[in-house]
Structure formats: C-alpha cells, structure tokens
Specification:
This protein is mainly β. The protein is built from 3 helices and 14 strands. The protein is globular, with a radius of gyration of 15 Å.
C-alpha cells in the first residue's frame, strides 16, 4: 500500500459542536433527520448554548434565523449543524450568529449561541443535529456509541 493509499484510508473526524447527551439518528424527533434523508447524522442534546466548529473549515450556509449552519471542512467533510427541531419557526429569536457565510473557522471556534430556555419555552426540542451531508460518498462512517460527548469530542469517524 502506497503513501497516497494510506492517506486515503486515514479516518476523518467529525467532532461534537456542543457538550451534551448523544441522541442516536433514529431517535431524533424529525423524520428528515431520523430517516437520514440529508445524510447520516447524530444529535446532541445540549448542556450549553454555544455551538462550536466541529473542525477547521469554511461557513457555506447560515440562514438569517441562525438555527443552522453549514460548514465544509478543510478535511473534505460537508456538514450541516441544525440547532433544534422546527426552530426555524422562532425566526431567530434566541439565536445569535458569531460568524457569517464565507468565513474561515477553526475547530472549537464559536459559530452560534442559542438561548436553550427560549427554545424549550417555544416547545421545541433543542437537540443539535450533526448531519454528514455527503455520507453516501464515503466507504465507512462510524457513529459514536458514547452516551455523552464534550464539545470537540469524537462524534463520527469517516473513511473515504
């Protein structure tokens, strides 16, 4: 096996954007995510309101409601972080962006802040959904089985 082959086989890591309890894909309370329509995903029921970059990359999408953020990693991963279920209905109330579309970010950098009490008061699950958009283009995607994660902890291991 040549060096290039070894590099292709080295797994890419999608880190958790927030500390909290891991929510398996099937248990995410939204069919678009629980059925993997956008790609394989895992949720994190957040213990804090700061959503951080899961890896180094570029912000590819950021709606003005700040309930989601797209990031393309310098490692090649394309991820959507979706904060809560049906939180677009909040029209940005309780959400603050720390970045803008086109920004280059580093792993752990704050992307969004969310007032978790406002999300709960509005009747929405606050689960932060980490979607690997192009998951079908990878040879293997391993989802963590840990019951909880720290921000920056391994959530997915992806092999090309």
């Amino acid at each position: 096996m040549g060096l290039l082959d070894k590099l292709k086989k080295k797994p890419l890591i999608l880190s958790a954007s927030v500390k909290g309890t891991v929510v398996p894909m099937a248990d995410i309370p939204d069919e678009v995510f629980s059925q993997g329509i956008l790609g394989l995903c895992l949720g994190v029921d957040p213990a804090e309101g700061t959503i951080r970059a899961p890896f180094d990359g570029k912000i590819t999408q950021l709606p003005d409601t700040f309930h989601a953020v797209g990031i393309q990693g310098s490692n090649g991963l394309d991820v959507l972080l979706h904060v809560g279920v049906d939180t677009v209905d909040m029209k940005g109330d309780g959400f603050t962006g720390q970045v803008k579309e086109g920004d280059t970010v580093t792993s752990g950098q704050p992307l969004l802040t969310v007032d978790l009490d406002k999300v709960k008061a509005a009747g929405h699950p606050a689960v932060v959904i980490h979607v690997l958009i192009d998951s079908d283009s990878y040879a293997n995607v391993e989802l963590t089985t840990a019951p909880s994660v720290e921000a920056g902890g391994e959530l997915m291991r992806v092999t090309k």
